[in-house]
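From the shared-data thread, chain only:
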Amino acid sequence: MLRHSSRGALAALWFATACAHPSPPPPRTAHAEDIFLAPQAEVMEAVVPPHATLDGLLRGYAFPPPVIEAAVRSARSVFNPRQLRERQPYRLVKSPDGLLEEFEYQIDADRFLRIFAPDRTRPDVLDATVLPYEKDTTIETVRGTVDAAHPSLIAAMVSAGENVQLAMSLADIFSSQIDFESDLQPGDGFEVLVQKSSREGQFAGYGPILGARFVADGREHEAFRWSNPETARAGYYDPAGRSLKRFMLRTPLKFEPRITSGFTRNRLHPVFRTYRAHLGIDYAAPVGAPVVAVSSGVVVSAGWAGGGGKQVRLRHGDGYETYYLHLSAFGPGIRAGVHVDQGQLIGRVGATGTATGPHLDYRLKRNGQFVNPLVVQRSQPPGDPIPPSLMPAFFTERDSTLRQLTTTVLAAAPAANPGPVPGR
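Structure, as tokens:
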């Protein structure tokens, strides 16, 4: 009896031990149909936060310091990391072992920065390049009408489903022919043939305006973009081939400035409350609005001018000089002796000096005497025409543009040929 009980106790002990420490299973034989998954890389997509730097952005993902230093160093070779802008999208790929495989940052609508590891065995060696986005390009006809609900060019353009950028470009083309502050009347309208770009089905920006027709105050104006094959320079011309570019722009502001004080020999000064001459045109504009040179010339001075505040003075041909007063800042590189082109940024609107609020005081002098800029601008002759030997080529492109302006059919633009007018 005792022997039997001992055997039972030993059996029970063996069973308990086996349960507590089970024997390992036999090795499993791999079969051909088995799939072994490698660790996956992490892909992160976000936008740049405020006040971020490339160094700080990468540190937030816990990359090793040598990898971060290599990324910043490679980026500097093609892009200024200080120009990293908040709210711009980026995409980052982090390898399973915590290293940087790829970083892409959208610089603007046209380009992106790419940082990548060309050799996985050397994670602290990275390359960088700036690449263009692949885009689809079309040519479209845009039409709009000025009416009581949309009394300005901007309002009419937005109503047509477009944005301010296209309105600004159209205004630049006709700036020497149309006063967009006073000429527009209900019933006026426009037709614009323009290149548009899209990326992944989303609007990505405008290309050049190829042709335009604008009816303002009952008068019809037409413009055609044409590139001189001998100089490769493009410009806008009327139907007869005369350049729409005048010696001087209508105003130094980009779009529809409102005149608050005109050229006069006897004006009540808003600060000193005495009557005195006002030898320029005051334009209402917000602080920081861009001010451009009305004509090509040389900077005579860029500095403080007493009651005129920060002022830029330019010398042009034919005895003309222009003055831009009360600026808040000067344009990049604007200093005495520098040549500037027509339309180049020379400063920004402000209220420096003797001023009751932000505005631009624009003055024009000819042969040492101040003259009314509006009168001079209206009396400018038409621009230089296309050379007679090139007129047949211009007429061919003009007629092609006219045909497209009068149809609602969208025409595809060849991406490899961003020429001024389709059909060349």
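The two ends are 114 Å apart (CA to CA).
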